[in-house]
Amino acid sequence: MNISELIRKKRDGSVLSFEEINFLITDFIQGKIPDYQVAAFLMAAFIKGLNKQETSALTKSMLYSGEVLDLSSIEGVKIDKHSTGGVGDKTSLILAPIVAAAGIKVPMISGRGLGHTGGTLDKLESIPGFRTDLYLERYKYVLQKCGAVLIGQTKEIAPADKLIYALRDVTATVESIPLITASIMSKKLAEGIDGLVLDIKTGSGAFMRKTKDAKELAQSLINTAKSFDKKVIGFITDMNQPLGNYIGNWLEIYETVKVLLGEKVDDLLEVTLNLSGAMLFLGGKAKTIKEGIKISQEMINNGKAFEKFLEIVELQYGDVTFIKDLEKYPKSNIQEKLLAEKNGYVQLIDNYEIGMASLELGAGRLRMDDTIDPKAGIIFYPKIGKRVKKGEVIAEIFTDKAEKVDEVKNKLLNAIKISSQKVPPVKMIKSILM
């Protein structure tokens, strides 16, 4: 085959076969095709699109560019969850122990923060000693032992994805639904799962701001999962405001523990319990998602989910004393409160700006070589539709960067629109796709 001819075919809108796509991926991994030609193909695919068969073929080629885990020796159904990311989205941290406590295996390969959104790995690594870079044998051992494991992508899993994502990142081809689908599904299918629950965010703090685009991505992911005979359910959920109140790596661990101990955080619980309920339904532990939600709540109420979280932390070398005594954790040098400037109802929140504000404080990376401050972040209280009073605390800021405090305060105030008129609350679950 000729790579120039494949680029030309896709540029002109022709459909590529599995053999053609597999040739491109295989030879790229082996160093036989240069970056610039793959970049040209990615741009052609971005502009002309890939159909269902091409998306499935690209996913399959990327999946088998590395190792596909065989978890058949581990008893039980294996179900994972994937979120497209958002501000304050700590659902993975809460649902993994819930679902494992209910008897479903959760093999989770997660990511780091991307842009304004936080990453599950960065949050877990804020726990002193916690390791997300487990060898595959340890990964299997932890999954067998406690029913859940959370690690990052290893060099053995979908290596083509790492190379292609690096090219997409610098060639303005990130926002392509087929390319996003292949990237996500090649990693998820490599886990050796039986089923997958998808949480596709939409709103000001999501990558897919429009609900229409979120549904299109969800359907693409669902179609691809089904083409590999995997059970799948997709949720479209709201990301027009932070999920929960805590934003930042240790702060989100803190809120996770509070929720697992029974604290009611309505929006966070609604999304998390729907996702965990769907995982239990797919795994055969519940006859409906609604029954799965009930079982999930029971796992919190009886303390089994929190005990499971402690077990996960300990098996991944984390220091559980910080989980048992949250106040033991180091504190930021600067802790300041932000007050509401007037009375009214919260009409809009620019959630992207909230996420960027947390990055400015040190909670994420503005550049690739930035070091994250695990203590840094924001506790953000307002919710759309809620009434605020002038002088009321609407946010708390935690940082060691004194020079950023005033800038972040202004950013947060400008991110909230207050109205004199009542505003309806946000609907957290927009739709469910199966």
Short note summarizing the structure:
This protein has 434 residues and is of the alpha/beta class. It is built from 17 helices and 13 strands.
Explain what this protein looks like in three dimensions.
The chain is an alpha/beta fold. It folds into three domains: 3-49, Up-down Bundle (Transferase, Pyrimidine Nucleoside Phosphorylase, Chain A, domain 3); 79-154 and 167-324, 3-Layer(aba) Sandwich (Pyrimidine Nucleoside Phosphorylase, Chain A, domain 2); 331-419, Aldehyde Oxidoreductase, domain 3, CATH 3.90.1170.30. The protein is 45% helix and 15% strand. It is built from 17 helices and 13 strands. It has a four-stranded mixed beta sheet, sandwiched between helices. Helix 10 links the parallel strand 4 and strand 5. The chain is globular, with a radius of gyration of 22 Å.
Note the topology:
Elements: H1 3-11, H2 18-29, H3 35-48, H4 52-63, E1 79-83, H5 91-101, E2 106-110, H6 120-124, H7 136-146, E3 148-152, H8 159-170, H9 177-189, E4 195-202, H10 211-227, E5 231-238, E6 246-247, H11 249-260, H12 266-282, H13 289-301, H14 304-315, H15 321-324, E7 334-339, E8 344-349, H16 351-363, E9 377-380, E10 387-388, E11 393-399, H17 405-414, E12 416-419, E13 429-433
Parallel strand pairs: 1-4, 2-3, 4-5
Antiparallel strand pairs: 5-13, 6-9, 7-11, 8-10, 8-12, 9-11
Helix pairs in contact: 1-3, 2-4, 4-9, 4-10, 5-11, 5-12, 5-13, 5-14, 9-10, 12-13, 16-17
